[in-house]
Amino acid sequence: MQTVRKKIKAEPLLFHTFNYLIMLFVVVVTLYPFLNTLAISFNSGVDTTRGGIYIWPRVWTLKNYEAVFLTGKVFDAFWVSVARTVIGTAVSVFLTAMLAYTISRKEYMFRKPVTLIFVLTMYFSAGLIPSYFLIKDLHLLNNFLVYILFPGAGAGLISAFNMLVVRTYIYTLPESLVESAKMDGASDFKVFMSIILPLCAPVLATISLFTAVGQWNSWFDTFIFASSRQELSTLQYELMKLLSSSMNSNANPNMSSTAARDLATMVTPLSIRAAITIVASVPILIVYPFLQRHFVAGLQLGSVKE
After folding, report:
1. What CATH number is given for 63-302 in this structure?
2. DSSP letters along 173-197, please?
3. For residue 235, which of 49, 1, 72, 4 has the smallest C-alpha distance?
4. Domain ABC transmembrane type-1 spans what residues (predicted)?
5. Nearest 10 degrees: Cα torsion 35, 292, 167, 153
6. Residues 149-184: tens digit of each pLDDT
7. In whole angstroms, what is the distance from residue 130 CA to residue 134 CA?
8. Backbone phi, psi, residue 59, to 5°
9. What is d(CA 88, CA 90) in angstroms, rounded to the nearest whole number?
C-alpha cells in the first residue's frame, strides 16, 4: 500500500519534469535562430566567415549596422513604412470588421452569396498582370494610396480570412445585446460602433497584428507599383536593395568610394543580412507585447463557435 502511494506521488513529478524539459527544448529551438542572427549582426563580417558564431559575438563591431544606416534613404523609408502600416492596418481592420458584422446578420438575405464570393478569393486570384493594369487605370501607380487600397502587390484592402475570423467571433456574442439596442432605436451603424466594435477588441487585435506584419514586411508592391518615386520607397524595399548590392559588391553604392572600400573589408553579405533582419524585426517585436494578451484571446475565442 505504501509503495502504491509513493508511485502515485511520483507520477505528477515525472510528468512535470518531462513537461518542463519539452517546453525548455521548444524555447531553445524557437529563440536560437534569433539569438544567432543577433550575434552575427554584432560580429565582424570577416570573422563571421570563419563560422562558429552561435549566440555570442566573437569580435564585436557596429560596422554592419553602420552599413545599413549610413545612407539617409533608410530613415526616410522607415517613416513611409510606419505610415503605411498604421494607416493601412487601421483602415483594413475597420472595414473588415464592418463587413464581418454585415454578413453575420441573419436578416441580411445576401450574406451567404457574399461570403461565398469572398471565400473564392482565397483560392483564386486574377494574378499580378491584371492587378497592375487595374491599378494603372485607377491612376494609383507611384501613389501612396496603393499601399492602403492594394497592399501586398494587389492583394486587396479586406482579407477574406480575417473577415471570417471576425464573423465567427461575432457569432459568439449574445444576440440579445443587438436586439435590445435596436429596441431603443439604435441604427445598425450605431450598434456596430457602440456594441460590436468594443466587444470585438480581442479578435480585432489578432487581425491587426496579422495585417500590420503583412504591411510592414511588404516590399514587392513597392517594387512593382512605386519604385519610380524614391519618396515612396519603404524600409523593406531599401533593405532588399542594400542586401542585393552587398552581395554584388560588399558595399553600399550610396557611400563614397573611400568609405565603400573601408567598409568592404569589414562587412560581408552574411553580416549585412543579419543586421537587416534585426532592423526589420525590432519594430514588430516592440509592438507585439502590447497586443499579446488580446492576440491569444482572439485566437481562442474567434476560432470556435459554440
Report:
1. 1.10.3720.10
2. S-HHHHHHHHHTT--HHHHIIIIIH
3. 72
4. 78-291
5. -40
6. 887 654 578 888 889 989 988 988 888 888 888 888
7. 6
8. -130, 105
9. 6
CA 230 to chain centre: 23
**Residues in CB range of 60: below 8 A, 6 or more apart:** 42, 43, 44
Closest CA to 100 of 167, 7, 152: 167
Residue 230 pLDDT greater than 70, yes or no = yes
The answer, as to whether pTM is greater than 0.85, is no
What average pLDDT score do residues 196-206 get?
88
User: CB of 54 within 8 A of CB of 77?
Assistant: no
- Domains in the chain: boundaries: 63-302
Query: How far is CA 7 from its chain centroid?
Result: 48
Tell me if residue 127 falls in helix, strand or coil.
Answer: coil
Cα separation, 31 vs 197, in Å, equals 35
Q: Which residue has the cell 506521488?
A: 9
- Number of residues that make up the chain: 306
C-alpha cell at 178: 443587438
Query: What whole-number distance in Å separates Cα of residue 234 and Cα of residue 218?
Result: 8
| % the chain with pLDDT above 90 | 7
The separation between CA 173 and the C-alpha centre of its own chain, rounded to angstroms, equals 27
Q: Which residues contact 160 (CB under 8 A, 6 or more apart)?
A: 118, 119, 121, 122
